Amino acid sequence: MQQEVDARRIPELSEVVDSALAQARAAGATQAEADASVQKGLTVTVRLGEVDTIEYHRDRGMAITVYFGQSKGSASTADLRADAVRETVAKACTFARYTAADECGGLADATELAGAVPDLDLDHPWAIEPDEAVQIARNCEAAGLAVDARVKNSEGATLTSHRGVRVYGNTNGFLGGFPSTSHSISCALVAQSEQDMQRDYWYSVARSAGALDSGEAIGRRAATRALARLGARRLPTQRASVLFSPDTARGIFGHFIGAIRGSSQYRRSSFLLGAAGEQIFPSFLQLQERPHLRQGLASSPFDSEGVSTRDRELVHDGVLDGYLLGSYSARKLGLRTTGNAGGVHNLIASAAGASASFEDLLKRIGTGLYVTELMGQGVNGVTGDYSRGASGFWVEAGALAFPVHEITIAGNLREMYRNIVALGTDVDVQGTIRCGSLLIEGMTIAGE
Questions:
Q1: Bigger pLDDT: 16 or 376?
Q2: Which domain holds residue 87?
Q3: How far is CA 163 from CA 62, 71, 123, 126, 296, in A?
Q4: pLDDT band at residue 3, thresholds of 50, 70 and 90?
Q5: What are phi and psi of 95, to 5 degrees?
Q6: Which among 427, 416, 438 has a CA at the least distance from the CA of 290?
Q7: Rounded distance, CA 60 to CA 401, Å?
Q8: Are residues 268 and 149 in the same domain?
Q9: Could you report the per-residue pLDDT of 178-196, keeping only the tens digit for each?
Q10: pLDDT at 7 over 80
């Protein structure tokens, strides 16, 4: 097979998928689905000016799932040669003959499958050599270390470039694929003043290398964040308003996404069980799924089952429209798939009439907590109880007063969602969920 990892691989990968599906049919499978992919990447890490790691990886693989009636078997291989594909299909068929039937199993309905695959501008290869990557990482770290003499140490600067091609097909007539890329630069630095040491980081990630922040800007931002944390204090236990930075606010909405997944609903393991049609958020809050944003980090023309992705108003005026479903979870719940097998695609949070700049949000807090980092896993997806370690800044008179650490913030997610009072205009687009800073009233802060 060719060595390139680009759109020219699609016909070859399509041939592998077609062959696997035909073999599954010939072996007696009533349905089958397969995907084949090739990918390559480069990761370089520099620490204190010296090369720490250089990793070059090239992977390929094929996975197939077969159904004999409603009994399922799956197998995969990292070898795309004909003999290996044939053996993998045979293994999947063998496994299916030993599994119990599941009445909700099977492929996505043919009527739900994507037709034409739109070009979402996801493929932007970066022809970067290891020497150049090392220099960018060095410059990134050096720029951060040069900000202030108190920036004394580094956990390293890392550059990563990835490109891959995936083709998916099934026996309901779907076959499609596309190439995509992802590039990133990150840096983590340590500031020290006497006995006080604080660490912080910054990063940039994009489909296109040209859309990344410069390495120097990332290094300086990491240094500035680490320096700002020097002199951090603990807080007395109290209740106060909490403002989450955009990257931490993403996690708050991430817990919501986990609660409305089909698997959480049919397993009855969600604090939002059966909540479709309920007012979950304030009436000003909207959550929209936009799968076809050009160069979006979570954009995709179809989900992992070949179902067409589409724009959706997931939360309208604070009311939950429905769940995130693949075919299996949809059947378990007696509903239709929403094209979310594999996850959500570009969830955008907005707040018409209740959005404000970061400075205005600080003024609105008056006195409270600004969270810039969360730690730990203290979130119960069944009850919604929320308790996580945090650090950030105490806010007084509408301005950042001093850094804080070694505290815990707690509440219940249902109550937290109802107590959202504003959303920032400082939207972070570097992830699956796009949102600004998030202001929530009345959370418990546990400290001294």
A1: 16
A2: 7-228
A3: 17, 35, 8, 9, 15
A4: low
A5: -60, -40
A6: 427
A7: 52
A8: no
A9: 999 999 999 999 999 988 9
A10: no
Can you give the pTM of this predicted structure? 0.93
CA distance linking residue 367 with residue 217, whole number of Å: 31
Whether residue 141 sits in one domain with residue 262: no
Q: What is the percent of the chain where pLDDT is above 90?
A: 94
Contact status, residue 79 vs residue 91, Cβ threshold 8 Å: no
* Separation of alpha carbons 384 and 413, rounded Å: 5
Strands, sheet with 285-289, edge to edge from the N-terminal-most edge strand: 319-320, 312-316, 285-289, 347-351, 433-434
The b-or-e profile of 60-87 (16+ CB within 10 A means b, else e) is bbbbbbbbbebbbbebebeebeeeebee
Q: How far is the C-alpha of 94 from the C-alpha of 88, rounded, in Å?
A: 10
- Torsion of the alpha carbons at 368, 371, 376 and 378, rounded to the nearest 10: 50
Could you tell me the pLDDT band of residue 2, with boundaries at 50, 70 and 90?
very low
| Percent of the chain residues topping a pLDDT of 70 | 99
Of 163, 195, 228, the domain-final residue: 228
Which tokens is 208 given?
A: 């296109």
pLDDT at residue 5 greater than cutoff 80: no
Which segments of 276-413 are extended strands (E)? 285-289, 312-316, 319-320, 347-351, 355-356, 368-375, 385-396, 399-412
Per the structure block, which two tokens stand in for 3?
A: 């060595």
> Looking at residue 116, what is its pLDDT?
82
Q: Which amino acid is at 275?
A: A
Q: Is residue 49 situated within a structural domain?
A: yes
Measured over the CA atoms of residue 437, residue 439, residue 445 and residue 447, the dihedral's sign is positive
Which residue, among 258, 270, 276, 235, has the nearest Cα to 369 in the 3D structure? 235
- Are 161 and 271 within one domain? no
Indicate the number of domains in the chain.
2
Cβ contacts of 278 within 8 Å, gap of 6 or more:
272, 319, 320
Claim to verify: residue 347 and residue 379 sit in the same structural domain: yes
- The CATH number for 142's domain is 3.30.2290.10
Which tens digit of pLDDT belongs to each residue from 278-318? 999 999 999 999 999 999 999 999 999 999 999 999 999 99
Residue of 335, 385, 353 whose CA lies nearest to 286: 353
State the Cα–Cα distance between residues 206 and 161, nearest whole angstrom: 10
Asked if pLDDT for residue 163 goes beyond 70, the answer is yes
**Assigned domain for 2 exists:** no
